[in-house]
Design brief:
This protein has 20 helices and five strands. It is mostly helical. It folds into three domains: 1-116, HUPs (Rossmann fold, 3-Layer(aba) Sandwich); 118-152 and 188-266, Serine Threonine Protein Phosphatase 5, Tetratricopeptide repeat (Alpha Horseshoe); 277-441, DNA Cyclobutane Dipyrimidine Photolyase, subunit A, domain 3, CATH 1.10.579. The radius of gyration is 23 Å and the shape is globular.
Length: 443
């Protein structure tokens, strides 16, 4: 008997861990640990999706998934001891907390790591001298040249699953919690595969339309990748059968996901601190008024239509279009001059697809403090960004009901006046842009 300890791999298809476990002797116990240290730092939407993914996985395993509350360092060895095995099979975790946790658990059991949540695991794509990449473009070239393995041919039938009720000495089985916090996206492997199949039918338009929040042109697969309802190799295998800029553009987005994971692996401190340390000295606003502006930004009451639309979409759907994420982030750090980590922390609390590496380094890109950072002099103008990427105005009108009477792209300029109930701009963008550039220049 052996154990498969599920973490960010809540599926049975394309799961190398099962292949490794099947090579052992006897049946397999599926385990998931409800780790309070992780759960309390996760926002409600992420917990909700996690719990529903666990329920879907338990259904795949015929109700035989052992869910246990507690510290993995205590729980996992107890489970292994009850099964009289020293081996516990996992997918490798490269995040700061996961690496530390696995090091602690590994002192008590033999953690057999097979595969990872990434197409190419962090640390594998390096320069010729073995040094890691710090810039995406050369990383991407090497990522493509390195290549990745094909999907693992696994399913729920790959191993014989143990019924935990038939094993004595196991920790008490916990009920899978319910959160019900906002996000309505369906969870689990079946939903992930169905959503992916649907997106493939329209991927040809992806590169041309991916920056248009008024169009349904993105895949919304990020949440399924976050919890491993699908593996990126499955997606890359399907993309490899296609030609065109859409498939190529989407492949590059999967490479960005691997790149940011690699950066976080190299520099765990970058989850909380500036990747580029010279920006530690930049002047930021942290006064009482700054907190008032932060609240206005969170509530979508800035008086800049596309910023407000994005923040209201986040509040409603627990998700935001990626182009709009950049716009609202730029507004926070370069118009309001607030710390990027304020916004990053709020996003992680709200987003159903909140991923530490992607989120933190996406924010640092916009703030100009990270790897491959947007140049400091690039300050997104929220009005022109709205006109360019929401040319019909439909996105803003959907999320800002006060502006539904505005026609076309005039919804971004409001040059004929502001409807009753919609606020005036909280800052003068032209002035704040000059302030932001001056602060960067002062370094």
């Amino acid at each position: 008997m052996t154990v498969v300890w599920f973490r960010r791999d809540l599926r049975t298809g394309d799961l190398p861990t099962l292949t490794a476990a099947a090579d052992g002797a006897g049946p397999v116990l599926g385990l998931f640990v409800l780790d309070e240290k992780l759960l309390k730092t996760s926002g409600g939407p992420r917990r909700d999706f996690l719990y529903r993914s666990l329920q879907a996985l338990d259904d795949q395993l015929g109700g035989r998934l052992l869910v246990v509350k507690g510290d993995p360092e205590e729980v996992v060895p107890k489970v292994a001891q009850a099964l009289d095995t020293a081996e516990v099979h996992v997918s490798a975790d490269y995040g700061p907390y996961g690496r530390d946790r696995d090091e602690r658990v590994g002192k008590h059991v033999d953690l057999v790591a097979t595969g990872s949540p990434f197409a190419i695991a962090p640390g594998r794509v390096t320069k010729n001298d073995g040094d890691p990449y710090k810039v995406f473009t050369p990383y991407f070239r090497q990522w493509m040249e390195h290549g990745w393995r094909g999907p693992a041919a696994t399913s729920a039938d790959t191993v014989e699953w143990l019924d935990p009720s038939q094993v004595s000495g196991l920790p008490r089985r916990a009920a899978i919690p319910e959160e019900k916090d906002g996000a309505t996206v369906e969870a689990g492997e079946t939903a992930a595969l169905a959503n992916w199949k649907e997106f493939l039918e329209r991927v040809s338009a992806y590169e041309d339309e991916r920056n248009r929040p008024d169009l349904d042109s993105t895949s919304r697969m990020s949440v399924y990748l976050k919890y491993g309802n699908i593996h990126p190799r499955t997606m890359l295998a399907d993309l490899g059968k296609l030609r065109g800029e859409g498939a190529a553009g989407y492949r590059k987005q999967l490479a960005w996901r691997d790149f940011y994971a690699d950066i976080l692996f190299q520099r765990p401190d970058s989850a909380r601190e500036n990747y580029d340390k010279k920006f530690d000295k930049i002047e930021l606003d942290t006064s009482e008024h700054a907190y008032e502006l932060f609240d206005i930004w969170k509530e979508g009451r800035t008086g800049f239509p596309i910023v407000d639309a994005g923040m209201r979409q986040l509040d409603s759907e627990k998700w935001m279009h990626n182009r709009v994420r950049m716009i609202v982030a730029s507004f926070l750090v370069k118009d309001l001059h607030l710390p990027w980590w304020w916004g990053a922390r709020y996003f992680m609390a709200q987003l159903v697809d909140g991923d530490l590496a992607n989120n933190q380094h996406g924010w640092q890109w916009t703030a100009g403090t990270g790897t491959d950072a947007s140049p400091y002099f690039r300050v997104f103008n929220p009005i022109t960004q709205g006109e360019k990427f929401d040319p019909t105005g439909d996105y803003v009108r959907r999320w800002v009901p006060e502006l539904r009477g505005e026609e076309g792209k005039s919804v971004h300029t409001l040059k004929f006046g502001r409807p009753k109930g919609y606020p005036e701009p909280i800052v003068d963008h032209k002035h704040e842009r000059e302030v932001a550039i001056a602060r960067f220049n002062s370094l």
